[in-house]
Amino acid sequence: MSRIGKNPVPVPKTVTATVTGQDVKIKGPKGELSMRVHDLVDVKLEDATDGAKQIRLSPRSEERVARQLWPTMRTNLKNMVVGVTEGYSKNLELQGVGYRANMQGQTLVLQLGYSHDVKFDVPKGISMTVDKQTKIAITGIDKAQVGLVASKIKSFRPPEPYKGKGVRYEGQFVLRKEGKKK
Description:
This protein is of the alpha+beta class. Helix content is 19%, strand content 40%.
């Protein structure tokens, strides 16, 4: 039995959850998210002991795939509940001489040592702020989308191992290599 999947997803009083068949909609103070739970996993909305609601999942069969999807779907629902109540954020740092970022409307413009500026259109549901031209804060309610956008921006110039220049997550350790010896 899955240690993650057997735990119900608690739904706070500020959040409204509706389950219709395999479709789950979660609405909270920060927005609304919806997800279709896989057909091999059963989903139910039930009352908890303290009067709040909770979402309970269970596998429909003892197949290996069903047992693998069960905790995954539970974690995705938990991320949705946290997203609509608190939200998610990722912070990026630019390190290198002349590396800068600024916002022009809904477009992030990056100067990363190329002969041209890298322009990135901010997707719907994501908000970005640039602080001191070297720090980018990405926030949103969908954890997967926030991580995907942060990864995409980092891929424009990943940190290199000799001088450490590039775009990195805040606090990321970059293993440095020794250069050529004479």
